[in-house]
Each structure stands twice: as structure tokens, then as C-alpha cells.
Write a structure and sequence with these properties.
Number of strands: 9
Radius of gyration: 18 Å
CATH class: Alpha Beta
Number of domains: 1
Strand order of the largest sheet: 3-2-1-4-7-6-8
């Protein structure tokens, strides 16, 4: 009998080669040396609006191409084989397969709001191999695992087994912990390509919560990432907004926090 994953997709119905094949088939035919991309499935978020112009080509991988407007270029994705969450995570990881000829990519979750042109984050990190924000609250995968279980983000047994396996392999404490909603990656770097593949495989075989697996993958591949300056919730480039399914109170609080930051906090961000 096929094992059932925590997101309801049967793992016995496919293997990891199918994941790689999906990413390869979605590769656009034409794009520039620098690409920006995001993933949007269902009604969870609205297509993000970009601030200003950008020299990068911008792609949105989605099952709702009719909702996507320029400068985004919509790429239709059928997420039924792996489920919404896993398909999104796989595409997040496999940037070098989706854009094999690009030099650098910027991925960000679809809930983000742009404060500046994306050219700023590209130019500020032109020499990076792998850059992202440090987690604003946690510094170890075990505290991240507790938070994920408390919020019912994934199956508890799956999360516990994954954390136990990483510790048994020697992952140090604290492991470091990162916010994975924004990623800047150099596709020409072999270590980055290995991290992408290993990270995707960890999600395929374990928890869909990619913030649990990434510290282990970075450690095992001996890649120290660069940290994007600031807090992922409040920084000079982009900030996460509320999700479409959030309560009106949660949406109001998030919008108020962003407004206060734009009026006062952003002036101190250099």
C-alpha cells in the first residue's frame, strides 16, 4: 500500500525523477541572465505588484494564469500530482533546473509587497552565491519544529523523525535557522546547485516545511549562505503582506505594521 504524505498526496504514485522532470518541463524558452520568480496556487495569495521597473525577466508559476498581469509572465502549472504545497516547494528549490541558462535568480513568496525595484536586491547581492534572511525569531531547527507542530503545519511524526535524523547525523546545536521566503542564488555555482537538489530531496522524502530541512542541507553541503540585511518582515526591499485567507484582524494588523514601517522604520534602512 502506498504511504500517504501529510499533505494528502500518495508518495508511492511517483518518485523523485518525476519532480525533476516537472521542473525541467516548466523551463521557459527565453529569459535574461537575471530572473525573478514566484509561485501562486489556488486562492491563498494575490499576484504581487512589483515596485518600479526591473531589468530581470519575471515569471509566475501558477494554476491561475488568467489572474497574472505584466510584467509577470505566467507559466501554467498543474499541481495535482504533488499537491499545492509540495509543488510550490519543489519549484522554490529547483531554480537552476527551471532556469538553467540564467546566471542568478531571485525567488520570493507570492505574499510579498515590493518596497523598491527588484534591481536593488540584485545589485546589492551581485557577488553572492546563496543569500537569504536569517530567521527573525529562531536559531535552531528544533524550535522551528515546535512552532510548526503547534501551528499544525505538518504531520508531527514526520517532523520529529526528520529532526531526529538530522541530529543523529551530527547537525550542531544551534543549527541556525533561516526565513526562506526570499532567496538569491547564483546558478553557476556548483555548491548552490547541490544545495538546491539536496534541499528538494529532503522535502520530497520528509516534511514540507523547508525551514526545517535547509539548515541541515547547508551544513551537510558545507555552504555558508550570505544573509540579506534586515528582518524579513521589515527591510528595505520587500515585506510579506497578509494572506488572502487571513482573518480581517490579522490582515489589519499586518497592514498597520507595514504602514508604520514605511512611514518611520524604512528611513533607517540602508
Amino acid at each position: 500500500m502506498s504511504e500517504r504524505r501529510s499533505d494528502g498526496v500518495k508518495s508511492g504514485s511517483h518518485d523523485f525523477r518525476d519532480v525533476l522532470d516537472l521542473a525541467s518541463r516548466l523551463a521557459p524558452l527565453k529569459y535574461s541572465d537575471e530572473v525573478v520568480y514566484s509561485v501562486l496556487f489556488g486562492e491563498y495569495d494575490s499576484p504581487p505588484r512589483l515596485s518600479g521597473s526591473t531589468k530581470a525577466d519575471c515569471f509566475m508559476f501558477t494554476d491561475r494564469p488568467d489572474k497574472i498581469c505584466l510584467p509577470w509572465r505566467a507559466v501554467y502549472v498543474d499541481p495535482s500530482s504533488f499537491g499545492f504545497r509540495r509543488t510550490g516547494r519543489y519549484l522554490k528549490c529547483l531554480s537552476h533546473i527551471i532556469f538553467p541558462d540564467a546566471r542568478v535568480s531571485v525567488y520570493f513568496d507570492a505574499s510579498f509587497l515590493m518596497l523598491r525595484s527588484l534591481d536593488d536586491i540584485l545589485s546589492d547581492h551581485e557577488d553572492t552565491n546563496f543569500a537569504l534572511f536569517r530567521h527573525p525569531q529562531r536559531d535552531d531547527i528544533e524550535t522551528e519544529a515546535v512552532a510548526c507542530k503547534r501551528a499544525l503545519k505538518d504531520d508531527n511524526t514526520t517532523i520529529d523523525a526528520q529532526v531526529f535524523r538530522y541530529r543523529s547525523k551530527g547537525l550542531p546545536t544551534p543549527s541556525s535557522c533561516y526565513a526562506t521566503g526570499v532567496l538569491v542564488r547564483n546558478h553557476k555555482n556548483e555548491s548552490v546547485r547541490r544545495v538546491n537538489m539536496a534541499w528538494c530531496f529532503e522535502i520530497y522524502t520528509g516534511s514540507v516545511r523547508d525551514q526545517i530541512s535547509l539548515p541541515y542541507v547547508l551544513w551537510s553541503e558545507n555552504l555558508t549562505p550570505d544573509e540579506i540585511k534586515g528582518n524579513i518582515y521589515y527591510n528595505r526591499y520587500l515585506v510579506p503582506g497578509s494572506h488572502a485567507g487571513d482573518s480581517w484582524w490579522a490582515r489589519l494588523r499586518r497592514q498597520a505594521g507595514i504602514l508604520v514601517f514605511r512611514l518611520f522604520g524604512s528611513r533607517t534602512e540602508k
